[in-house]
Amino acid sequence: MHTPAPLDQNTLWNGPGGQTWVAQQALLDGLFQPLADALRSELPATVTELLDIGCGTGASVLAAAQARPGARCTGVDISAPMLALARQRAAGLGLDIDFIVADAQRHRFDSARYDWMQSRLGVMFFDDTQGAFANLHRAARSGAGLRAIAWRGAEENPFMTTAERTVGDQLALPERRPGAPGQFAFADAGQVRRQLQDAGWRDVQVQPLDLACSLARDDLPAYVRQLGPIGLALRSLPADRADALHAQALAAFAPFIEGDRVRVDAACWLLRACA
User: Fold this and answer.
1) pLDDT exceeds cutoff 80 at 181
2) Do residues 233 and 171 touch, judged by C-beta distance below 8 A?
3) Nearest alpha carbon to residue 199 among 261, 110, 137
4) Which residues are within 8 A (CB) of 232 and not within 5 positions of it... i.e. 6 or more apart?
């Protein structure tokens, strides 16, 4: 079966990927709440200017703004539809947050502005990771902190690849290349550490972070049908074929179901660094 080229990140996140994350914002925020909690626990009381990288629909930057009301918070993301929802959510909570639709790898941030940078699953999509971290370093004040959560490898996150392993051979999926932009781009901790150090960051730590996440069992069909490479591939199929593959993939998640919840053991890295 023909293997298509990986989707351009701008096309993906301003198109089907971004639209799906908007539609499934509540499901995804619930699923990744332990990650948002872990980031918030790292947030210093002294932060005055915070940048949330790849902030998506806003969960982590909203949490930071609520936890540190005296700080000026900014969220940056390449996805216009996701930031539109983030703005709505901030306004609904009465939070004054700046949102920038831009690629954090290339955007000309104010030099030496931010004293804290954070990201919940938003730093794995750069086509030049070292260049992106160097650009962010230029925007950081001396002594600024960086905290980011990223996935470890696919083999350590079996939930995330269950649908792909079950029906992927029946679909034309983009090839996964080690280190390429995408969910598991940061699988190699040594490479990530070197990229941060070569970009100018110091005191770099890349530490395993294992978090117990979950979603409602009733939400599992929507998760399988709409998210990830399988969700994207099913959109292009006739309804009966998509339904059959969806049912096949859904059945493979039985080992993760515990009562009315679905267990998702998230194998991540916690990146810590200082400018």
Assistant:
1) yes
2) yes
3) 137
4) 7, 16, 17
